[in-house]
Amino acid sequence: MTAIIVLVVIIAIIAIYSIVIYNSLVKYRNWIEESFKQIDVQLNRRYELIPNLIELVKGYIDHEHKTLVDVINARSKINVGTPEERVQADNQLQSTLRSLYRVTEDYPELQAQKEFQDVRDELISTENKVTNARGLYNRTAAEYNIKREKFPTVIFASILGFQKQELLEFPEETREPVRVKF
Q1: Is the pLDDT reported for residue 52 higher than 60?
Q2: Can you tell me the distance from the alpha carbon of 169 to that of 107, in angstroms, rounded to the nearest whole number?
Q3: Nearby residues of 154 by Cβ (< 8 Å), 6 or more positions away
Q4: What are the pLDDT digits (tens) for 69-125?
Q5: Domain of residue 36, CATH code
Q6: 151 or 47, which is more confident?
Q7: Parent domain of 51
Q8: Is position 56 within any domain?
Q9: Phi and psi (nearest 5°) for 16?
Q10: Fewer CB within 10 Å, N or C, the chain?
């Protein structure tokens, strides 16, 4: 009789521990999804600001047509594909926006225009928010991965199908600060 009680207690402890681990992994998985949605919100905000910037710049730098076309093409890719493809498209967009900012430095009358300054400032603010959201995603994914790989959670995570989350990587050129001259 005592052996049966001990066995039931052990099974109950294992069941409760399994539930706790499962709920913890689900919580982290949802945090990862939420943090990626924060990136998505900021990418959409930038997506909406870019046409304003292009309209303001277009009249000044018509002979820099390739730069404008590159920005427009990069923008068109930002809302399609898997999360990983969207992050790659965002990296490309950041690179083309840097090129556009460099080109606009040669136009002091454009730099002095209040509408341009407002849109540029809003885009820079949005860039900072994208960076922060990406950092949150990577921190959350790293915490989840650490939790998932610890013993004995790794056993339950494998059985329950919780996969490792990849961290977002940033190309070297996106690590450079955006230069904005006044």
Answers
A1: yes
A2: 33
A3: 148
A4: 788 788 877 777 777 777 788 888 888 888 777 777 777 777 777 888 888 888 889
A5: 1.20.1440.20
A6: 151
A7: 18-175
A8: yes
A9: -65, -40
A10: N
